[in-house]
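Pilot study result, target chain (70 residues):
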Amino acid sequence: MKTNHLELYTDYLMVNAAGYATATGLSTMMEGEVSHDQITRLLSKQEFTSKNLWKEVKSTVRLVNAKTLA
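Predicted structure:
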């Protein structure tokens, strides 16, 4: 299975908003399917900003918001 690591990491950030989000924590949550090193390499390729994060999660946030208001 081809995993979109950025999508996976942003989902992890959303569900772990109250705690500390770490590459190790994601790897543990995924039972080793995605390694700490894979996430670390992804995050070191470029500088990610809040704008990047919003672009990734916007559609999910809008969907949840619409269901909540319905």
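One observation from the pilot: The chain has one domain: 5-69. A full batch analysis is planned for the follow-on phase.
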